[in-house]
Write a structure and sequence with these properties.
- The protein has 3 domains: about 5-260 and about 310-375, no CATH class; about 455-650, Rossmann fold (3-Layer(aba) Sandwich), CATH 3.40.50.410; about 670-805, Jelly Rolls, CATH 2.60.120.
- It contains 26 helices and 28 strands.
- The strands form 8 sheets. The chain has a 6-stranded mixed beta sheet, covered by helices on one side. Strands 16-20-22-27-24-25 form a 6-stranded mixed beta sheet, with no helix packed on it.
């Protein structure tokens, strides 16, 4: 039995009340998303992506006031944050009243949504508390889950259909709700706008709405003048833009399948289709049959006999995505993102019984994360997004889809405002819709295949990235680059972290966070404009060194033996950077006393002759990057920088070292780490921990827990990221040693005399280590059940032990400075 909800939440939520997101007005807890100008500007909200969705759901799961299982949480998300069909309605008088919100759920998707929440996926406990999430994340989640179309004229219609690298982001006017007309008239500088972000468009170049609409509210939107309307409720995934609301709805329905009678769905109305099946299984209207029924009814009442399925489009840009633009305003009842969301929701809903039998305490965030991962899938490598087309063929019965769609269309017809009445021929219309859906989904949606997905990478990045930002970069230019880096290194609860610092003085702009949603919520145009401009490397290095030493002291206090790599990346746009002797000395001390930190520079002009003495490797640690305000090709432009970040291996350290004080031997210490099947992880042990040639210094990789397959441990002194012999082209096999580790035992790597013959710490190479897990096709059990530590339940746990690591500084004088004696004393207090 599922644990439905904790006593604390029961008390907090109180008794059942009206299902507010199923009402014909904007839910009270969501209204600030449509009244607060900051929240109305999507550029102040995190980008809608599967990473953001998982991150926000993790925050809800980790909330001390929320203790629900997967089934209940999926239901509560729908009842709290999803409200389909909300549209803007310009006041007929042209002016607005402070007592009237010009938004209401009147688009056609609302009627199906209301049936789902009131009849098919009901909840006795209606919603999560309004303080569960901060406003920015609440509104971001609402827009990711809620399907609607905004077809208002924006002024960009002559270019937005190109889609290759769409240049504009929507920018609401700051004057308030009444003047919130979003447009795209070009202007020279983005800084001219108050809330504008990301692209150079003027919010004050008013574009009037065409007033010649039909009498229906929903028709006003569908018959609007925009040739590329904006589809809301869409998230970006590597396997195509997807309607997240349908995914969550499918999971919720599949976790508690219900068969509901047609009479219950049409209660209070006259049934006109007596010859259809009289029962509806909730999984179908929650996903595929819901959108198919909408297409049948809306197109059918326009005297269409052949129901069109599918409508393509693209996000407004390849990075920092905020809006999904459809390529047409016609036949938008079942768009491409909705097809993907319906398929994914149906696939997961169809498997929920077996999934929960495998791991009854699986988290909703884990389920979504596994399904949208490059490998492994949901306890079966076939159950993942890259395989949706093949899965559809195997699990979806065409006859069942026709029958269920016809039944739900009959129910929806009794609850939906339409422009006509279908008297006969419903079966023919449904058959046409299903046939066209099957053809379109199999032939027209060429998303990435699993083969391409798996060949892309087998490494999960785990980096603490410190970005030192020169605020003279235009926000429109640098934000897509930063966003790309965060996506590429997988900033997240179980992955990398990011800290944003100022190049003016090294001060913190955005505190260290493992949450992409939090970072994007904080680093906005307004935050960027508040930064001091200019670069002072001496001050920046001085303050950063202090921060890094505080971090070392904290690692000593917490017995931190290893984990994420550390990378300090300067993103500089100013002209010739001043590099004084004092700057060099500060950088030298940082490199010598924080040996595991990799310092990189990425500059808009060639600065290698100026900055070469501040890094360890002048040829590979200084890069010239050419960024544009359009964000085009940012991945190619940052490829070399990203590669250097990814070459920074995870750390294995002696936690007693802070390199401003003499420190003793580490003794025997250890930390646990986790790896997915089919992936490899790289580590490095700095020579600062074994330069003294202690005969007992060693690293030990051991395994005591269950898991599929063996682990392969490789190590080398010359190959930075060693793999199994023969897998690195052009590398002498003798440079790498590899051993297999079965389900128990250990592999010992001796550091005895590892720096013999090297005159100084700086000349002795690190010990490079890798741990690789063999790929498997099925992971039929949950072996990693600590949700605080395990990203996925099939991750394999292993232990990294250090023994008799030492502490040697590469500085010529390792005596403690007065500053850090004071810092240490304060830290101990």
């Amino acid at each position: 039995m599922y644990q439905y909800i904790s006593l604390a939440l029961l008390v907090m939520l109180g008794g059942a009340h009206a299902q507010v997101t199923a009402q014909a007005n904007v839910a009270p807890d969501l209204r600030e998303c449509y009244t607060n100008p900051i929240l109305m500007d999507r550029n102040n909200l995190p980008p809608p992506s599967v990473n953001t969705l998982v991150d926000i759901i993790q925050k809800i799961e980790d909330s001390p006031n929320v203790n629900v299982d997967l089934r209940m949480l999926s239901v509560l998300l729908l009842h709290t944050y999803r409200q389909d069909g909300i549209e803007y309605h310009a006041p007929e008088s042209g002016t607005t009243s402070s007592s009237v919100l010009p938004f209401a759920p009147t688009f056609h998707s609302f009627y199906r949504h209301r049936l789902l929440l009131t009849k098919l996926i009901p909840s006795n406990l209606q919603a999560l508390p309004n303080n569960t999430l901060p406003s920015t994340l609440k509104c971001a989640l609402h827009h990711m889950l809620s399907t609607t179309i905004d077809a208002r004229v924006r002024g960009d219609e002559n270019t937005c259909g190109q889609f290759a690298e769409y240049r504009a982001l929507r920018t609401p006017r700051a004057a308030g709700v009444a003047e919130d007309v979003e447009i795209f008239a070009p202007v020279p500088e983005i800084e001219d706008t108050e809330y504008g972000q990301m692209r150079q468009f003027n919010p004050d170049a008013e574009v009037e709405f065409n007033g010649n609409y039909g009498s229906m509210r929903s028709a006003r939107q569908l018959m609007g003048e925009s040739t590329c309307p904006i589809l809301d409720g869409v998230i970006h995934t590597s396997w195509g833009a997807t309607s997240a609301g349908s995914v969550i709805a499918g999971i919720a329905a599949g976790a508690e399948l219900q068969t509901v009678s047609l009479s219950e769905l049409t209660k209070g109305t006259v049934q006109t289709y007596d010859n259809v099946q009289q029962n509806v299984v909730n999984l179908y209207p929650a996903t595929l049959s819901g959108d198919l029924a909408e297409a049948v009814l809306i197109q059918g009442t326009r005297a269409r006999n052949d129901i069109t399925i599918g409508s393509g489009g693209n996000f407004n840009t390849s990075q920092a995505r905020r809006y999904f633009m459809l390529s047409s305003r016609q036949n938008v009842e079942m768009t491409d993102p909705e097809i993907r969301g319906d398929l994914d929701g149906f696939i997961l809903g169809n498997r929920m019984t077996s999934i929960l039998q495998t791991y009854s305490t699986l988290k909703l965030s884990q389920l979504i994360d596994m399904y949208y991962s490059p490998r492994n899938g949901v306890f079966d490598s076939s159950i993942r997004a890259c395989n949706r087309r093949e899965l559809t063929t195997s699990i979806l019965s065409n006859n069942a889809l026709v029958t269920q769609t016809e039944s739900f269309a009959a129910a929806l017809n009794a609850n939906m405002l339409l422009s006509g009445t279908i008297i006969t021929g419903l079966t023919q219309l449904v058959t046409s819709a299903v046939t066209n859906f099957q053809s379109y989904s199999q032939s027209n949606m060429n998303d990435l295949s699993c083969t391409i997905t798996e060949s892309a990478t087998d490494v999960r990045s785990r980096t603490n990235l410190y970005i030192v930002l020169d605020a003279t970069w235009p926000y429109a230019t640098i934000y897509p680059a930063i966003s790309y880096l965060l996506d590429s290194i997988e900033v997240g609860k179980f992955g990398s972290s990011v800290t944003l610092l100022s190049a003016f003085d090294g001060s913190v702009v955005v505190n260290k966070t493992f949450s992409p949603a939090d970072f994007h919520s904080e680093y906005t145009l307004l935050k960027h404009q508040s930064m001091m401009t200019g670069v002072n490397l001496e001050t920046a290095f001085t303050n950063i060194r202090t921060m890094m030493h505080w971090s070392l002291l904290n690692e000593t206090a917490t017995n931190y033996v290893g984990g994420n790599s550390s990378v300090l990346l300067f993103l500089l746009n100013s002209g010739t950077i001043q590099n004084t002797e004092a700057t060099y000395q500060q950088a030298k001390q940082l490199n010598e006393t924080v040996p595991d930190l990799k310092v990189l520079f990425a500059t808009s002009s060639n600065q290698i002759d100026n900055l070469w003495n501040l890094v360890r490797d002048m040829h590979d640690d200084i890069h010239t990057i050419s960024l544009t305000s359009t964000g085009v090709g940012v991945g190619d432009r940052l490829a070399a920088v990203l590669n250097r970040i990814k070459l920074a291996n995870r750390r294995i350290i002696n936690p007693l070292c802070n390199f401003e004080f003499t420190a003793g031997s580490s003794g025997l210490r250890q930390f646990d780490d986790f790896i997915e099947p089919g992936y490899i992880q790289f580590y490095a042990v700095s020579p600062n921990y074994f330069f003294g040639n202690n005969d007992n210094s060693k690293i030990r990789i051991s395994r005591t827990s269950a898991g599929s397959g063996t682990l392969t441990v490789c190590y080398s002194r010359t190959i930075v990221q060693p793999r199994r012999n023969g897998t690195i082209i052009g590398v002498d096999d003798n440079l790498i040693t590899c051993e297999d580790l079965a389900s128990s035992g250990n592999i010992e790597i001796s550091l005895q005399n590892a720096c013999g013959g090297y005159p100084a710490v700086g000349s002795c190479p690190p010990m490079y280590i890798s741990v690789q897990a063999v790929a498997v096709s099925t992971t039929s059990s949950a072996i990693c059940t600590d949700n605080r530590l395990c990203r996925f339940p099939y991750n394999i746990r292993f232990t990294v032990q250090v023994e008799e690591l030492q502490c040697y500084s590469s500085a010529t004088n390792i005596g403690a400075s007065i500053l850090f004696i004071v810092l240490a004393a304060l830290f101990n207090l």
